[in-house]
Amino acid sequence: MLFMNFNTKLMNRCFEAGTVHCAANHIYPKPNQNKYKTVQDNNFSTDVLFRPQRVQLKLHVGEEYPLKLRYRHTQDYPVDLYYLMDLSASMEDDKDSLSKLGSKLAAEMQALTRDFRLGFGSFVDKVEMPYVSTVPEKLEHPCDLKSGQPCAAPYGFKNHLKLDTNTSLFSMKVNEAKVSGNLDYPEGGFDAVMQAIVCQKQIGWRQKARHLLVFSSDSDFHFAGDGRLAGLVEPNDMQCYVTDDGNYTHSLVFDYPSISQINQVARQNNINIIFAITESISKIYKHLVGSIEGSSYGILSGDSSNVVKLVRDEYQKIVDSIGLISTGNKQFVDVHFNSSCISGDWKETSTCDGLRPGSEVEFIATIKVLQCPENKNSVTFNIKPRALEDSITVELEIDCDCACEQPGSEGYERNSRSCSWHGNFQCGVCNCDGDWYGDQCQCERNSVTPVHLNENACRMNNNSELCSGFGVCECGVCTCNVRPNANERYYGKFCECDNFTCRRHGGLPCSGPDHGICECGTCVCQWGWSGEACECPDSKENCYPSDSSEECMGRGSCKCGICKCKENYSGKYCDECPSCPGQRCEKYESLVACKVFGTGPLSKEECDMDMSITTVEVDYIDPEEVKNNTQLRVCSFPDDQGCTFLFRYLIDNSTVEVQRTKQCGSDVNVLALVLGVIGGIVFIGLLLLLVWKIVTSIHDHREYVKFEKERSMSKWDRGDNPLYKQATSTFNNPMFGGE
């Protein structure tokens, strides 16, 4: 069936009552009064976070419907946390810390939700060169630990503990896990992440729970393509190959997963990945989380002693935010969201932050049908939060068959006068019979009507070509040429318009469909973009540095999302100035010296001839004032007399303010200085002698007191001393008779 509509005033087909120049009797199909039906709407509970749960909609192509949704943040929503740890030798200290902090981690999480389960897995790398040494003895003991003990044999991934409510097992399993080693710096963490996500049964992920995968490492990661170094050319198939005893069996069969594969399985299985990494590799993982939906990262201390706080904080960030997504096919259905979040101000957003247990937020999901799917008139899709199983199922019935196309219905006229009696008038346009064509079926293919009469109707004006040179005139109607590229076309009554000759940027018309659409040779920009080729973002966010609230540091203007700097300035934020400040200080030095103080290398004639600056004398210049004014520069230079003069200037200003008084030191009295030094030396010498005399006097006094004390305590007298002998001796002669 062929419908032809050339936008004549008589033949307009309208889809919406608000369309310009459309009367109510020209709207086809008629508005559906029974568009919405609630199928399931259970009350909020621990397991029910969204209302309603299932709805039915009936819309026609081009029609929109605002669907009201409600979300409530609950505290005790079930949580499954699987801790995936790098157990290469460099993580030995981290494993010891984790085994000691396991019970504390469990306690912290149980304080946030009573329904909590904990699991543990580890990884090293593929057991193949060049990742791991394949020397037989190295396969058994690839390295030595700090304790002097040999480390365990390498492996790809091991599931040590399935998710379990008995969290005391966690510390035990972490303690039992053996540290191993590999050769190269990157680890095989992506293999482990893939298996931990897709092996739902082996890991124990619950359907109705928030899924957290904590990835802990101090190294980079291998990704798709690196496996070719070991001859592993088969791409990762994103399937589970973990046995019931926890071993990954296909490590040497498939290449490492790609980042997009990790993102895909994480999104499909509602997994929030928390990368707990060290500071040295934070830049790598900062870029990585931007490519994996719902992921985040935190910085570990050297021995992972802060892992409990890291996990708790990152978990809190996740649960305190809600972001909605639609699983509908964007080719057929467009969904965009508005919300007032908790502020009360409605805006276009799919994310609300800062939620607390018990918080309830409302969203409006505007659903618009773009086109009918092939071979069916119904579409079912979900509106759900990122990384949660809860969702709202939308059963959408699309009215693809208009009633006005059927005989006997309103808007259907057989052999209508509006179609020159040569066709049926259906839904506002003509369906012509046989060899008749045209917007009113006024043309016959074998007509004898003079050609020039038809051709005049195909010219925009007397000077224009037939159909603008891009079509063929048939019975006064232009049939536009077909382009080799199916996405490019000519259109319009006179084929005067096209969708491919607009200004291009990046090789695409209007910078691509995300930025704008080419309509009749002119770009019609999407919201948030402007410019002849829609190449310029309306937002000036890229023109503000993180440490300044001024656009382009106040040294330029933001044009097309890029700072256009003033003269002498450059850099992303106009934060670079090759010709200032130091060079201009040096340039002005000699001029200020001669113009204000009459000194310096310049002669009076040279000084008077140079009019590049205007000097103004001020009483005082504070060197610290530059901290409060980024446009100000303060310069100081010594002169020939040993004094310092100060001046200041504003960027882009030729006026230089000079402090009228120099900063000079007072004259030095040499004699006083010499006498002062000599007197100081003599004084210090006398002082030292005095100190020595005092010390020796105190010492002698103490010794005398000690002697007197000992003498007073003696128990003998000098007169009775048995050891005392007089100086004279007496002898008696026995023969002497006394005569």
Percent of residues in β-strands? 15-25%
How widely separated are the two ends? 190 Å
The CATH class name of the domain at 79-319 reads Alpha Beta
Outline: flat
Give the CATH topology of the domain at 79-319: Rossmann fold
The major β-sheet equals:
6 strands, mixed
**What is the helix fraction of residues, given as a range?**
10-25%
Query: What low-confidence regions span 5 or more consecutive residues with pLDDT below 50?
Result: 1-24
Discrete helix count: 12
Question: How are the strands of the biggest sheet laid out side by side?
Answer: 1-3-17-16-11-14
Number of strands: 38
Mean pLDDT over the residues:
81
Radius of gyration: 46 Å
Structural class: alpha+beta
Structure description:
The chain has 739 residues and is an alpha+beta fold. Among the domains are: 1-29 and 411-438, no CATH class; 31-73 and 323-401, ntegrin, alpha v. Chain A, domain 3 (Immunoglobulin-like, Sandwich), CATH 2.60.40; 79-319, von Willebrand factor, type A domain (Rossmann fold), CATH 3.40.50.410; 582-659, Hormone receptor fold, CATH 4.10.1240.30. The strands form twelve sheets. Strands 1-3-17-16-11-14 form a six-stranded mixed sheet, with no helix packed on it. The chain contains twelve helices and 38 strands. The chain crosses the membrane at residues 670-692. It holds the Pfam family Integrin_beta. Residues 2-402 form the Integrin beta subunit VWA domain.
